[in-house]
Amino acid sequence: MAFFSKNRLDLESLSERIVPAVSGISFMNGNLSVRLDSQGGSLTLQGNNNNFRVLFNGTAVGNLAGYNLGGSLSVLGGNGNDTVLLVEQAAATSFRIPGAFSVNLGNGTDSLKTTGTLNVGGLANINMGNGTDTVIFADTAADSTTIANYMTVIMGQGNDTFDATGGNLTVHGYSTISGANSVELTGNAITLSSVSIQNAMAETNNNVLNLGATTTLNGNLVYTSNTRTETIGFDGSTILGNVSLNLGQGASNVTIGNTTDTLVQGTFTVLGGNAADQFTIAATSSSTINGSLNLLLANGDNTVTLDGDGTSTVGGSVTITTGSGNDAINVGSAGNTFTIEGALSMSVGNTSSATGNVVILTSADIGANVSFNSGSGADTLTLESTQISGNLYANTGGGADTVEFDPSSATPVGTTNMGAAYINFGVGSGPDVFINNSGNDFDIFVQGFIG
Fold it and tell me: What is the pLDDT of residue 7?
């Protein structure tokens, strides 16, 4: 009588073959696992529907007819320099992993790339280990990778890159990317749910994050940095949730709408460190934040520019808080109205330079009150052609301070208007400067002025 196992297990030892870096292939219950040793090399997984062939350094290994997956695909590497490529068996054919896709490549200079049309039916769990690593999803504009569940990518220590600059990347679940110094989400069509990006604290490399005009996040974006410098761009992207950027202690540059209209449906919050941070809504496009904008930038010479092509809008309130340093805040520009439908609150710290903190509102349209509070030192608050539906409350602190309405007008014919202005120049030696060239009639109350 013959006996047969209900589960089929194919386990091939490849130690005697010409490809010693593949230490084993196991195929059980429709799940395929490929193991590499520490010598490194190039592993290619060729897919056609759910059939996968295995090649190492261009030579077919294991079952030459391939493995018909009914479940997961996993790759386990050693501490060599590994390259893993997922590619279609023939042009214009799609392939799929019915279950989870798991890659753990160990330390070394490793890369993972998907090409063709790949569908992952489960989750994607990628661990690249320490080293200079690269993950590329949907390499060219003709390629597409879809992940039905969540995606976790751990890049480890090293100068690492997560690259989705080619074709289509769709992730239906939550995405977590940790340890990548460069995250590029600018491909042909990038559609993600909520995304969390975390930088490794011990890194010595600077960080880059870019979301392009074809990028849509159907949830929130949470970004947590380290002590390095950040360059972050949202250029034409659509974010249907909230944005939270924790920039750490390095100097940072955040730009919205550098060339293309950008939409954030929720609240946009930036937490800066003690360095010179820059936040810009660019003048070259129309950008919209339907929630509130909160900029908490701490110490350093910070620069905030809220501009646009004349139709940029923040649907909620705007709060700008800085620490000690020489800060510059600009809202709107000549001929380009910047609209804040809620209140505008600005609080800057102490300054010791002659120029001090400079705040300029030009063609700004504020739907509620405007408040300005500063510490010691020279401060300048300028309003040009600005409309405030509520009142202005300005407390300039001690020092030689300047408050001016429509100073570019030679006579009182300026268009700045508000309910009333309450200005307190604080306690200091002066001399203070107050200029009102607005042609509109509103109440002005001044305290602590020293001429």
Answer: 41
For the chain, give every domain's residue range.
108-447
- Spatial contact of 339 and 313, defined as CB atoms under 8 Å apart: yes
* Per-residue pLDDT at 179 exceeds 60: yes
Distance CA 81, CA 356 (A): 53
Which of 408, 427, 416, 412 is CA-nearest to residue 389? 416
Each residue's pLDDT tens digit, 60-97? 999 999 999 999 999 999 898 999 999 999 988 899 99
Instruction: Name the pTM for this structure.
Output: 0.92
- If one counts every other C-beta atom within 10 angstroms of the C-beta of residue 347, the result is 16
pLDDT (tens digit, 9 = 90+) per residue, 343-361?
Answer: 999 999 888 777 789 999 9
Distance between CA 238 and CA 169 in Å, rounded? 15
Cα 260 to its chain centre, rounded Å, is: 16
**One-letter amino acid of 399:** G
Whole-number pLDDT of residue 5: 38
pLDDT, one tens digit per residue, over 255-279 is 999 999 999 999 999 999 888 999 9
